[in-house]
Amino acid sequence: SPLRVNLEVKNKKYNTARISPEPYHFCPDDGWVCFRNGEHISGVIDKSIIGGGAKESLFAVLLRDFSAEAAALCMSRLAKLTARFLADHGFSIGISDVQPTDNLTIEKAKLL
Fold first, then answer.
1. Helix, strand, or coil here: 89?
2. What are the extents of the domains in the chain?
3. Mind listing the UniProt keywords for this protein, alphabetically (predicted)?
4. 65: Cβ–Cβ under 8 A, 6 or more apart, which residues?
5. Distance separating alpha carbons of residues 80 and 104, to the nearest angstrom
C-alpha cells in the first residue's frame, strides 16, 4: 500500500522576508515544501528536505512515522529517479574536477 506521508517544511530557498498574505505554498522561490497523503504538492526538494540531518527531513519522517524499510524504499526510488534524470538530461565535469590536488599528490607519494 502507498505511504501517506504528510510533511510541511521550508527549504533553504524559503523567503522569510515575504510580506504576502498568501499561504506558504505560494512562496515565490518555491521554498515551502509540502507532501500531503504521499503526494508532492509544492516546493523544491533540496538536500535539507531529503536528509541533511534535520529531524523534519523526508527520510527522518519516514523512519519515525513508518519504518526503516519505508525510508530505505524511498532512498532506492530516489536513486533510480536521479539516475534516470542524469541519463536523460546529462551532466558534465571538467578535468579539474577529477584531478588530485597538489596536497593529495604529495601525501600519496609519501605513502608509496
1. helix
2. 7-111
3. DNA-directed RNA polymerase, Metal-binding, Nucleotidyltransferase, Transcription, Transferase, Zinc
4. 5
5. 33
Give the integer Cα–Cα distance in Å for 8 and 54: 13
Quick one: DSSP state of residue 26? G
The residues pairing with 34 across neighbouring beta strands, listed in sequence order, are: 8, 42
Tens of pLDDT, residue by residue over 47-101, are: 889 887 778 889 999 999 999 999 999 999 999 999 999 999 988 888 988 899 9
**Alpha-carbon distance 33 to 40, whole Å?**
8
Sign of the C-alpha dihedral computed for residues 46, 50, 52 and 56 taken in this order = positive
**Cβ atoms 35, 74 nearer than 8 A:** no
Strands of 32-36's sheet in order across: 7-10, 32-36, 39-42
Taking Cα atoms as reference points, which of 56, 10, 50 lies closest to residue 30?
10
